[in-house]
């Protein structure tokens, strides 16, 4: 588990370095996208925990949906908005 956290931390620092060095953003401006990535990672972590708890609780008549996640106090994240999906886009850039 420590490796996963250190990998995420490395990616976030790399993103911050990229914003600082290769953008026209002022230091007061690049904090917004970096903090957004940190928040997304946190939301994705909470979503993953809720997803594991909800797995298998759907019935044949009703699938697990956005409301189920919200009832657990978790922000629903569609697959294309998950941290993993966005990090693949970032790695490909």
TrEMBL record:
SUPFAM superfamilies assigned to the protein according to its UniProt record, in alphabetical order: S-adenosyl-L-methionine-dependent methyltransferases (SSF53335)
Record domain N6 adenine-specific DNA methyltransferase N-terminal: where: 9-87
UniProt keyword terms in alphabetical order: Restriction system
Pfam families to which the protein is assigned, alphabetical: HsdM_N
UniProt-listed GO biological process terms: DNA restriction-modification system
InterPro entries, A to Z: D12N6_MeTrfase_N (IPR022749), SAM-dependent_MTases_sf (IPR029063), T1MK-like_N_sf (IPR038333)
Homology family: Belongs to the N(4)/N(6)-methyltransferase family.
Record-given protein name: N6 adenine-specific DNA methyltransferase N-terminal domain-containing protein
Species this protein is from: Gimesia chilikensis
Upper lineage: Bacteria, Pseudomonadati, Planctomycetota, Planctomycetia, Planctomycetales
